[in-house]
Predict the structure.
Amino acid sequence: MGSALLLTMTPAWAQDAATPPPPSARQSAPAEGDAVDGEGAALEDTIFQMAPVVVTATRTAQDAATAPASVTVVTQEDLRRAPVGDLTDAIRLAPGISLTAGSQGRRGISIRGMDSSYTLILVDGKRVNSMEAVFRHNDFDIGLVPTEGIERIEVVRGAMSSLYGSEALGGVINIITKPVAPTWTGGIDLKAQTPTVGANGEELRSSVFLSGPLIQDTLSLKITGGFNHRQAWNGARNPGSPVLNADGEPVTRGDGSVVNFGDLATLEGRNDHNGRLSLNWTPTSQQTITAEYGRAYQNRIGEYFIGGTFGDADTVVHRNDAVLGHKGKWDWGNSEVRGYWEGLESGVDGLVQNNLVAEANATAYLGFNTLTVGGEARWIDLESDEFTSGGASVHQQALYAQDELSLLDNLNLLLGARLDNHENFGLHFTPRAYAVYSPSTHLTLKAGVGTGFKAPTLRQMSTESLVTSCRGRCGIIGNPDLEPEKSTNFELSANWNMASWGLSATVFQNNIRNLIDTPRGTGVEPVGTDPETGLPLYVPRNVNRARLRGVEATASKSFGNVVRLSANYTFLESRDLENDVQLAYRPKHTLNGQLDVMPMSGLKAFVRGQYIGPQLSGTEEVDPYALFDAGASYDIHKNFGVNAGVLNIANSRTEDAEGYVFQERGRTIYAGVNARF
């Protein structure tokens, strides 16, 4: 398990492209009902499976082992057996991944030390973007798809702007949903968990999937849904003590009641409801027309006291989206054309964001060349009373081309480039090159360079935008003079894999120019004062050059078909080159390890640990900490299973007062059931 993601006995190579499978393991598992010899053979059939196919790295199907990128795959089996609440739970143990956070326990996903805003999230290749409407500590996008509806999650580390444009400087996370089924199938997954320390925090999660033909071989239906509820968790060590203001007096609510530390939300409460309906029409075996509609609702609950300010964190977000697309298979290759709309509304702030995307691409197989060309047009429109003109908008178009060349049986070269035309910044060219060489069946070498750019957001650019920040003590307005951020990414990897063990190592470096930051606070002069509130005003600026470089290493060893050990380690050096200082909130060392055991058919158990090394909080270094989990799952029947376990066994706590990037939830027990037909 090179990524330390698996809670099952699936081998490392089936999950992380950094640990390629041996050729003998790239065969499909026997079909249900095939004869096997003895219990050991039955276990082997359960363990070994076909190496995963990934599409995110190139927009074409690739064996994960030889895909021209650093790719980690999380399977539906992993999601079913694990206590996964959202995308961060699913991938936090992957190489190169760390979590960032805002207030109230909200999380973001950082890839190789890049800020979470540089991580592009896709659902079936469609970009998801609520950045303008949900701009305060946004993690709305990470819980969008019910786990029962997910086929797999592909995590690509490194700049991918040549294919996906802006926002993909750090990497891409593509949530691949289950395809429509030729016969009626379905599933339901139910999970519950509760902290054993602090107060409240109970969580119930459910997700459903249903798919089948309405007209055999012509019209099919797919329905997914998720319904999650989490109470606010109050993890204060001194819950009965009153919260004091700067004058040493107890903080009170509007009704005069005193606010105690036990009333504050260490982890805010959440209610998530989402559903999606998809129709697939196949007028011929080579043509597929898809129509989808999805709706999501989320509200968050909790009281907070931050920077001397007390308040409610209550927020409500509505999301609607629709998709219409066509896929074709031709003598020369494949094509896809689609358009999709996404509308978001923040019920508290009254913000409305509309995203519209039209895109098309085609892939032709020309001898030893696999040529992909495409284009897209995007529009983002924001309506807000905070803008004096009522809103802001931006549009951009792009053309891209990519050629995958099979130069030799064991040598592949990828060359790609993208030309973006941004309304405010004109033309930007982002090339990418990647080589994969397999000198033997056990060794794979990879090397690549990619570039990217990220345009400022509407709020960062508009002088009409005013966002309260500094924990209520300042305001931030837009700066129309900003330039796009640009990056160049290098990586080199070597991967050695045998039948029962594997090793890999990847070195990477990402150079960033025109990094956008918003200097404020001590030593920074404000650009003005808000006439209504009297708060000092600051603006975002292109102030930094940054360099992020490091090493990712994985190792795995299996003992027969019963026990498997796996681990991965990430070393990260992150520097602000302008001021020659380490970048904050980026752990220098991260180590993940896991022991998987399958003593009998259907029963799988795991013990895992994560070490998060020291990191800066402002100018102070906070101590490292470790988390340990254990759990097991049992398939009572091939279509019915149960699972249970304990998270954060040692009850490791990270206190906000000590400057940690976010507070980990205390010891938590979980249990779940899943059923399929």
Summary: The first strand starts at residue 53 and ends at 54.
